[in-house]
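Translate sequence into structure tokens.
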Amino acid sequence: MRTSHKFGLAASAVVLGLAGTLTTTASAQPQVAAAPSDCPKYYFCGYKKANFKVLAFKFKDCYLQEIPDGLNGGGSWYNNQSAGTKARMYDKNKKLIYTTPGAPSSDAQADWRPVWYVDAC
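Result follows.
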């Protein structure tokens, strides 16, 4: 069981701002960095540290899964699932707080504090 965290609207806004590291090219097609070597195809991976360092979990199943203890601050995530698949993040009350862009997508500077559960697809 994860330790309870107090956070307000500011922290929620940070989570909702987890737009990822997508950039737009001249052709308006989103680009994302290549998947980290420890995040296999068809998985959503969470990291303890920024820039995809220290793998904490990799989920591929389509149901709500509690993230591991120790993800109580900054980190990162990579959505390496089937093209277009979106992962969803939930707070401790299982309320949806963020939906990722379709795969492939990522956030090299994520904030795990308000996140307690992930549904990989």
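Note: The first strand starts at residue 23 and ends at 24.
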